[in-house]
Amino acid sequence: RFPGLKMYRSHTAFLLFSLVTQILGVVIFLKGFIPIKKAVPGHATLLNLPPEPWENNTVVFQNLSANTEDVLNDSGTPLPPIFGRLVIMLVDAMRADFVYGEKGKFMPYTRALVDSKSSVSFVAKAHPPTVTMPRIKGLTTGSIPGFVDIALNLDSKALVEDNVITQMYRAGRQMLFYGDDTWLKLFPDHFVRHDGTTSFFVTDYTEVDDNVTRHVVPELSRSDWDVMILHYLGLDHIGHLAGPASSLVGPKLLEMDNIVKTIHTALMEQDSKRALPTLMVLCGDHGMSNAGSHGGASAPETLTTLVFLSSLFSGGKGSSHVTSQVYQTGLAPTLALTFGLPIPQNSLGQVMTPVLARSSVRDQLRAAQINAHQLVGVLQANVAGFEREAGYQLYQQAVRMHSGWLKALVGGESATGLDTMGQRVSVTSLDTLG
Length: 434
What we know:
By secondary structure, the protein is α/β, with parallel strands linked by helices. The chain has helices at 3-33, 66-70, 97-100, 108-115, 132-141, 148-152, 164-170, 182-186, 207-213, 216-220, 234-242, 249-271, 299-302, 331-338, 361-382, 390-410, 415-430, and strands spanning 85-91, 120-125, 175-180, 193-197, 227-232, 278-283, 303-309, 319-327. The chain starts with a helix and ends with a helix. Mean pLDDT is 87; it is low at 57-75 and 149-154.
């Protein structure tokens, strides 16, 4: 009777159906491309650490020698710090082959420390997006920022998620910062002295670094700080201007190597007068593509340098792991555990156990246990019925193995036997959510 009305209704229904379908498609895409994780709110503390897994969490002291009794810890105690001070030298876009590959000839001092195993060195893989602000978040929180952080990179806000920098601040560490002012935006009021440089004048690859370096020697002569962070931008700017094959890259790497030498030699001399050695970390936030850019997931963009330097590793007491990869997320738990701090509670990182190789086997197992326990907390917050997950089952197995190791320690097992058992326990613990 009214054919025009029927046609109007059918067109309207089709348009509504198409609109709903498009909205659902966008929602499904965003949920997959920008997943929302359940972050545990607040900050981790040292008050809720798991006890060492003695049987029934108790220790029977009778019939033990005095020496054995002395090494037994109370339940839930944190690890003692290994290092006293920290220097982080972050060279923006320091991809792995700039130190470990052919271009390592431009960093002779650093390369010699790596080759002589007077450092603990890794190839560290960054999760995309390989952009500075998300990578700083990943390095300090141990979590994996998403692609939405690319937009936030243009206007960084204070980082509220638990992170190792804030943990140091809450522990009363006096911190300094010089370099890319993204850090000052992410960690406002954390630094007692600071000088920020902007990352957006990419034609400047000289003054942007000189403004960092001019603070280094004066600060090394002072003793009123615990943590110094340096973020150099010049190498990244050269990449954007001319690419990694540019003749400008070699001199810039040599400049960075001379700064490493200045800092490392000063720290080595000072360590002889300090109760605990200083740790220096040389790292990149991301790499650099063969075109000089970054942001994607290619190997040149994601594989970065990570070198731990300390008097603890001098004289060939370190190790080299540049033929395999670790994840950058492991830096946060590694720093937390070696400085006696809580692991950021949303961290997905695994402690880099070679950095703890100079510690006792017992302390190494304790570090792996604390790390695995924290990872299970993240699993519990994000997965319903987490007890049925393979990672949790592996964690339970690691706890039982750790308990067996402690019994062997008390029972007088040989040092060789304890080392062999300890390696198996450590691997199982760190495979919990690997």
